[in-house]
Design a protein that fits this description.
18 strands, seven-stranded antiparallel sheet, 6 helices, Immunoglobulin-like, 37% strand, seven-stranded mixed sheet, 2 domains, Rossmann fold, single chain, 19% helix, alpha/beta
């Protein structure tokens, strides 16, 4: 997956005659870690949306071309605003691919590069005010079901969406809506079984980051009571997403450090599903993560572990070697998130584990 990101968030600056102004921003299109840039041409639609009603018609629209070899692209959008409106009007800048936008996760797509659209934070049109350092992904996960997810524009890997979590969200969205992935090797029967059980299901997500997977589960399955966990540094972005989700009552956040004792209140109710996405890349933290998974599974016998992993380095094998010592791998499937510029598929492995 390729992600449109704001390197410089949008701001509005008046022209000298103050009869019009320019909204400017600096963007890039890159991988989830930002370590590789999108190396293909793509046409971009740039829209200035009303900050209070983004479903209304755009205030202004223009188009840009991202060319293979680019690392950044400066965006400028001319806009005329009446003087009496400038002090209370806010706007949002959206940038999306005209051909390969990947925002509808419920629809399967042909092989090829997919680009996730970006929406800025609202910013004022009184001149000089810059949008906050967040980017919103407006994801479609079902019929008339939207999932807004905010992430930071900065460098913190804890507060970004990664491919593993996105692939798992794609799987959840498509599996509940379609029969397309009912073939052997393409569907997780153990997950279907536990999600289909009557009654409430306690779900615990480790290393939630922005919380995309837990938010999707709580939105798609009303019987899921989801607890997101992560270090305190992720708390701000998680609470921002909880506030915007509208999922009051069946999703919450609790801080959890894998190197500390697991609080008793975290397992006050037996956990049925433990979710882990994009948490297996640091070999030094692998023993702590496996220990936490083992203790949680011991406290909740029969708990199923749902894990998404995009392989990046051989050092990640340490985690799976440790898992083999205490857990049984029940199922494994692979999902693709389009292709990179060199036509290599962005593959994410999704596993089901249970304590042996």
């Amino acid at each position: 997956m390729q992600y449109i990101r704001f390197l410089k968030t949008p701001r509005f600056v008046y022209t000298k005659d103050r009869r019009s102004g320019v909204v400017s921003a600096l963007i890039t299109i890159a991988s989830d870690l930002g370590d590789t840039f999108f190396f293909q041409d793509v046409a971009l639609a740039v829209k200035l949306l009303d900050g209070k009603s983004w479903t209304s018609l755009p205030l202004s629209v223009t188009r840009y071309a991202w060319k293979a070899g680019m690392r950044t692209l400066k965006i400028e959008l001319d806009f005329v605003i009446k003087q009496k409106e400038m002090f209370h009007r806010t706007a949002i800048l959206s940038v999306s691919s005209e051909q390969t936008a990947a925002d509808d996760l419920s629809q399967s797509r042909a092989a090829g590069p997919l680009v996730l659209s970006a929406y800025s934070s609202p910013f004022g049109l009184s001149g000089g005010t810059e949008a906050e350092g967040y980017v919103e992904r407006r994801l479609i996960i079902g019929r008339e079901k939207a999932l807004p997810v905010w992430e930071e524009t900065g460098e913190s890997i804890a507060r970004h969406i990664w491919d593993g979590g996105l692939a798992l969200t794609v799987y959840l969205a498509q599996s509940i809506l379609t029969s397309e992935i009912n073939n052997k090797g393409k569907r997780l029967d153990a997950l279907d079984k536990i999600l289909g059980l009557p009654g409430d299901l306690e779900v615990l997500e480790l290393g939630s980051g922005c919380g995309i997977v837990g938010l999707a589960l709580a939105s798609l399955y009303k019987n899921c009571h989801v607890t997101l966990t992560d270090l305190p540094l992720a708390e701000e972005i998680i609470f921002k997403n909880l506030e915007c989700s509208g999922l009051h009552g069946n999703i919450n956040f609790k801080p959890l450090d894998w190197d500390q004792n697991i609080p008793e209140n975290l397992t006050a109710k037996p956990i049925g599903l433990i979710v882990v996405a994009d948490c297996t890349y640091n070999a030094s933290s692998a023993p702590s993560l496996v220990r936490v998974l083992a203790e949680l599974s011991s406290r909740s016998p029969g708990a199923v572990i749902l894990l998404a992993h995009k392989r990046r380095h051989d050092s990640e094998d340490v985690f799976f070697q440790l898992m083999d010592e205490s857990f049984q791998k029940i199922e494994q499937i692979q999902r693709a998130l389009g292709t990179y510029s060199n036509e290599e598929a962005t593959n994410v492995d999704i596993y089901i584990f249970q304590l042996s």
